């Protein structure tokens, strides 16, 4: 059996809850540590703060769909799409 995934560092999949400001409102988001790292990388590449990047995604989804749904799941999908 391949150990690419089972041998991954445990710290990468630990759940981390962060308080973030989205459109001026403080909220908590719980994601695995690896997704927070990817979000930080994307925001940095876009020359944005993490809060600015999360606000941008949030506003795009509201504009396109008129509803948010599960934001944490959306962020995971955005990260995997980015990769």
How many DSSP E strands?
2
Q: In order across it, which strands form the biggest sheet?
A: 1-2
Topology pattern, helix = H, strand = E: EEHHH
What summary fits the major beta sheet? 2 strands, antiparallel
- Stretches where pLDDT is under 50 for at least 5 consecutive residues are none
Helix content: 40-55%
> What value does the average pLDDT take?
89
Rg calculated over all Cα atoms = 14 Å
Overall, the morphology is: globular
Distance between the termini: 24 Å
Portion in strands? 15-25%
**Total count of helical runs of at least 4 residues:** 3
State the secondary-structure class.
alpha+beta
Brief summary:
Helices cover 49% and strands 19% of the residues.
Topology:
Blueprint (H helix, E strand, L loop, with lengths): L14 E8 L2 E8 H13 L4 H16 L5 H12 L1
Antiparallel strand pairs: 1-2
Task: Walk me through what this model shows.
This protein has 83 residues and is α+β, with helices and mostly antiparallel strands. Helices cover 49% and strands 19% of the residues. It has helices spanning 33-45, 50-65, 71-82, and strands at residues 15-22, 25-32. Strands 1-2 form a two-stranded antiparallel ribbon. The chain is globular. The two termini are 24 Å apart. The relative contact order is 0.14. The model has no long low-confidence stretch (mean pLDDT 89).
